[in-house]
Design brief:
alpha/beta; ten-stranded mixed β-sheet; 29% strand
């Protein structure tokens, strides 16, 4: 999240009771989680597993959990609880404000845009021209929508990220300060959910069409002209490049890249990044041609095992492999 004006690092340290080392004249211009940092960002790290990644990232300032050498030009803020310190700053610069009216007075609605009954618009929502927002749609704080967008009934845009840190036996919510950005000519079906980013943006690219009952998690980036069928779930921080097609009930795990022009067939599970320009099927998803060969071989396996038992003179009372697998695995006897 970009700050409205840069803030001196000493001021941020004072707010969270942290000790500054390194460049104490630094100005911070954004708050970001580690994979979204840029010059001027403040981020945090509370585990040695990610310490080097944070220290040598493009972030200018890092909340750290123990004393370490500060890289040149950066500032470190030593805190007993960097996660809680970061959350404190996030809540201060993007505080929750309850909606008192159905449409926030600071929402902006473009010329030619139609809102059907019971549409809710949160604070600082911006909607472009010639959009159609159908009945019972909820669009929450800081969402930005382009021109010629259609959103069907019951969809919720901009809910908080499903993102927690376990502390003891409980979970603490990471305060979401990102946005949802929907570009021109997008259509989103009924009863979909699109979460805002934790610190960056959840983005839906120009011309993309989304069916009913689809969930897009925090920080997901969807490219141009993608097609996403019903009951698809896309986990946080995953990137779909342009012209990707996901058929019904596809599940995509977090922090992956699905390459341009990839097609994933129905009910597949994507557990690793996929190259573009290919068609995938299965769980875990693999190229369709290879997966179908594997399934064809599997159907032949009971007969092969039965022949192997006979060839080796198996005459015990135990069932053979063919009998154990049963008719649903291709028993043709």
């Amino acid at each position: 999240m970009d700050l409205s004006t840069p803030v001196p690092i000493k001021e941020l340290a004072r707010m969270v009771g942290a000790q500054v080392t390194g460049n104490d004249a630094l100005l911070v211009s954004s708050l970001n989680e580690i994979h979204k940092v840029k010059m001027g960002s403040l981020t945090f790290v509370d585990s040695d597993n990610y310490l080097d990644r944070a220290l040598y990232s493009t972030a200018s300032a890092i909340l750290v959990h123990r004393p370490v050498d500060c890289p040149d030009g950066k500032a470190l803020l030593l805190s007993d609880d960097p996660f809680e310190a970061y959350n404190t700053l996030a809540k201060y610069y993007n505080p929750f404000s309850a909606l008192r009216t159905v449409v926030s007075p600071c929402a902006e609605i473009g010329e030619g845009t139609h809102l059907e009954p019971n549409v809710t618009l949160g604070h600082r929502v911006k909607i472009g021209r010639n959009c159609l927002i159908r009945a019972n749609v909820t669009i929450l704080d800081d969402t930005v929508i382009g021109d010629n967008v259609i959103i069907h009934p019951g969809t919720v845009i901009g809910s908080d990220a499903f993102y927690y840190k376990k502390k003891g036996e409980a979970y603490t919510r990471w305060h979401s300060i990102g946005r949802v950005v929907i570009h021109d000519d997008v259509e989103i079906g009924a009863n979909c959910t699109v979460d805002r980013g934790v610190s960056g943006d959840t983005i839906i690219g120009q011309g993309t069409k989304i069916d009913n009952l689809v969930h897009v998690a925090h920080g997901v980036v969807i490219g141009k002209n993608c097609l996403i069928a019903a009951q698809v779930g896309i986990a946080g921080k995953t990137i779909l490049q342009d012209n990707v097609i996901l058929y019904g009930q596809v599940g995509v795990s977090k922090s992956l890249v699905v390459g341009e022009g990839a097609v994933v067939m129905a009910q597949s599970g994507v557990s690793k990044s996929l190259q573009g320009g290919r068609t995938y099927f299965g769980s875990p998803a693999s190229e369709t041609r290879q997966r179908f060969k594997e399934l064809a071989s599997l159907r032949r396996l009971p007969d092969f095992l039965h022949e192997w038992d006979l060839k080796n003179g198996k005459k015990t009372n135990e069932p053979n492999a063919h009998e154990m697998l049963g008719p649903e695995f291709g028993d043709n006897s």
